[in-house]
Amino acid sequence: MSPGASTEPQTDPLARLAELPGVPAAVAGVREAVDAVYGHRVMRRRSPEVAAEAALRGARASAALAGADWALEEVRRRGDFGGDEEARTVGAALRATAEATESLGIWRGSPLRVLARLHLVAAGGPAAGPDADRIGRPRLAGEAVDEPALAALPTAPGADEVAVRLAALADIVVAGSAAPALVTAAVVHGELLALRPFASHNGLVARAAARLVLVGGGLDPKAVTPTEVGHAEQGQERYLAALDGYLTGTMAGVAGWIAHCARAAELGARESVAVCEALQRGAA
């Protein structure tokens, strides 16, 4: 894996990332922001509504980062996402976001199975066409990545390196970590974007997997904090710049990426507080 390459044995390689400069403060900031959502009076009775709205907004934002920046009301209004490329991207984001929640019980035991499933639901369907045999599995030798939204990144590793690093990531997930869920989610998110293990839809898969880690890791058990909104709000340029830092494998670069993910989570929590306020006004 990229962060902190070392020959020393590491029983919990993510734990030391939680101690990098700036990371403890970032984690504390996210915890405070998420607590503000969970402490809102609307959450006592209407948390499923908040979660549904968070999923919709998170999927819309993830699609925007993948090149389909639709207005929220357009996503809410549409029932058919099988038209042009942007519509298919929005549909893929909606499916991947929903699948992440459904996969919580499988993730810790079979993370690679979940990643394959996320790609299957995102990239599958009638539009798959001649690429159907590349869906739901990592790239094979010689297969390229077709993902314009991530084209500015360095060339993705080859299939052999992807297999090794995916296995290492899976081992870390299965073993568990004392690191905060935010740190684990940032590493899962960053590593999947670094590897781009699938022929397409890697961004959607990475963001759905990060959502899954935050929910399953206990930071956001009711799935009411759409961190994808925070990533989109900060903008594609800053998103990719922070990821470039992760790709360096330096402690500063990895810490910067974690901090960027933390800010996204804070902004996502702020979005859900606004949703709670809107629901409260509607109920009044």
UniProtKB/TrEMBL annotation:
Classification of source organism: Bacteria, Bacillati, Actinomycetota, Actinomycetes, Kitasatosporales
Residue span, Fido domain: 110-260
Gene3D superfamilies the record matches: Fido-like domain
Ranges in coiled-coil conformation: none
Organism: Streptomyces mimosae
Family annotation (InterPro entries): Fido (IPR003812), Fido-like_dom_sf (IPR036597)
The protein's name in its UniProt record: Oxidoreductase
